[in-house]
Amino acid sequence: DTEVTQTPKHLVMGMTNKKSLKCEQHMGHRAMYWYKQKAKKPPELMFVYSYEKLSINESVPSRFSPECPNSSLLNLHLHALQPEDSALYLCASSQDRGDRELFFGEGSRLTVL
Amino acid sequence: QKEVEQNSGPLSVPEGAIASLNCTYSDRVSQSFFWYRQYSGKSPELIMSIYSNGDKEDGRFTAQLNKASQYVSLLIRDSQPSDSATYLCAVNTPGFQKLVFGTGTRLLVSP
């Protein structure tokens, strides 16, 4: 059983929709991450939160908006996405930002029509 | 030159054989090295981490690190069909604020 839980597992949305991806971890980790992964490519870092503060934004378009309500929760708000944003979105956590042993959730498979 | 390089494969081995997966990295000051396994359609799973030169063994897995050659490898002994997956090498370098992933090697273990 994964200790990083992501919902929903699958999401289909139109380009005008607003939706959110959610992530929760129960390991007491203080760093949380959003990654995007396209087929046959490695995960691509989007955002890093450390102690609930945004510490890295990898020049992600503003149609993706992260939020960290508390140390266990991480959200990714989606608005006005493009079909090329269709991908597997992975949440991960680590003990802290300096610890690179990442534990990934099962991912949310997003399809933008 | 890519920062972390892996042969994309597929690497095909028969059941019971040793699978050897290789990874090279470009930044000499890299300090932490990780192997993740990713089954098709699933998320990456950390299987090994190694921080100092030499070998580190965990069950059927052995990670090998040679910082002088900028080379890290993963050996899987007694390969099983259930080991068939993509193996991602990831490297952490001081000053970089993120893990750098290789493109992964697809391993196929045939019964």
Key structural traits:
heterodimer, A: mainly beta, 7-stranded mixed beta sheet, 4-stranded antiparallel beta sheet, B: 111 residues, 6-stranded mixed beta sheet, globular
Question: What is the fold's blueprint, element by element?
Answer:
The complex is a heterodimer of chains A (about 110) and B (about 110).
Chain A: E1 4-7, E2 10-13, E3 18-25, E4 31-37, E5 44-50, E6 53-57, E7 64-70, E8 73-79, E9 87-94, E10 103-104, E11 108-112
Parallel strand pairs in A: 2-11
Antiparallel strand pairs in A: 1-3, 3-8, 4-5, 4-9, 5-6, 7-8, 9-10, 9-11
Chain B: E1 4-5, E2 11-14, E3 19-25, E4 32-38, E5 45-50, E6 54-58, E7 61-66, E8 71-76, E9 85-92, E10 99-101, E11 105-110
Parallel strand pairs in B: 2-11
Antiparallel strand pairs in B: 1-3, 3-8, 4-5, 4-9, 6-7, 7-8, 9-10, 9-11
Figure out the total of helices of chain B. Answer: 0
Terminal CA distance of chain B reads 37 Å
Q: Please compute the radius of gyration of chain A using only Cα atoms.
A: 13 Å
Estimated share of beta-strand residues of chain B:
over 45%
C-alpha geometry of chain A: globular
How does this model look, in words?
The complex is a heterodimer of chains A (113) and B (111). With 113 residues, chain A is an all-beta fold. Chain A is 0% helix and 57% strand. In chain A, strand 9 (87-94) and strand 10 (103-104) form a beta hairpin. Chain B has no helices and 11 strands. Chain B has strands at 4-5, 11-14, 19-25, 32-38, 45-50, 54-58, 61-66, 71-76, 85-92, 99-101, 105-110. The radius of gyration of chain B is 13 Å and the shape is globular. Chain B has 111 residues and is mainly β. In chain B, the strands form 2 sheets. In chain B, strands 2, 4, 5, 9, 10 and 11 form a 6-stranded mixed beta sheet that branches. In chain B, strands 1-3-8-7-6 form a 5-stranded antiparallel beta sheet, with no helix packed on it.
